[in-house]
Amino acid sequence: MRILRRFLARVKNFAMGQRSREFGIRIAVGAIRGNVMAVVFHQGLVLTLIATSVGVGAALPAARALTQLLFGISPLDATSFCSSVVLLGLMSVAACVIPALRAVRLDPVRALRSE
Questions:
Q1: pLDDT tens digits for range 41-66
Q2: pTM above the 0.85 mark?
Q3: CA 59, CA 57: separation in Å to the nearest integer?
Q4: Closest by alpha carbon to 80, among 63, 94, 92?
Q5: DSSP string, 60-79
Q6: Burial status of residue 13 (CB atoms within 10 A of its CB: 0-12, 13-18, 19 or more)
Q7: Gap between the Cα atoms of 45 and 40, Å rounded
Q8: Of the candidates 97, 4, 98, 104, which has an alpha carbon nearest to the alpha carbon of residue 51?
Q9: Domain extents for the chain?
């Protein structure tokens, strides 16, 4: 769990680092820091929704194929699917916190001078 959360946070940090100039301009122009945080969370949650949709779409046929390996649950157990989606969603939100705080604390002058 912790390894996956760290991996997701590093991916988000990389994506936020690519957009640091944009965030610097937004803050310099006068954007509210909450809006900058919302942009980072929006980007992360859209990626999570897309990945979750693809994952659930692939898991449904895979569950049917693995029916003989499952013991004690049905292949399309709603509790298992829903709990995994919720858990991955919470991990994605946790992974977005560090880059969002980094974007909010960004010094606009330093971000604009970096390139």
A1: 888 888 888 988 898 888 888 888 88
A2: no
A3: 6
A4: 63
A5: HHHHHHTGGG--SS-TT-HH
A6: middle
A7: 9
A8: 4
A9: 2-113
pLDDT of residue 99: 81
Whether the Cβ atoms of residue 29 and residue 20 lie closer than 8 Å to each other: no
**Signed CA dihedral, 68, 1, 77, 53: sign only:** negative
The per-residue pLDDT of the chain, averaged, comes to: 81
Distances (CA, A) of 57 to 47, 54, 80, 82, 87: 15, 5, 14, 13, 17
Phi and psi based region of residue 108 (left: phi greater than 0; alpha: psi -120 to 50; beta: remaining): alpha
| Amino acid making up residue 40 | V
How far CA 25 is from CA of 15, 37, 44, 102, 107, in Å, comes to 17, 14, 20, 15, 10
Residue with tokens 């999570």: 48
Cβ count within 10 A of residue 44: 22
**Position 51, amino acid:** A
Tokens of 63: 């569950």
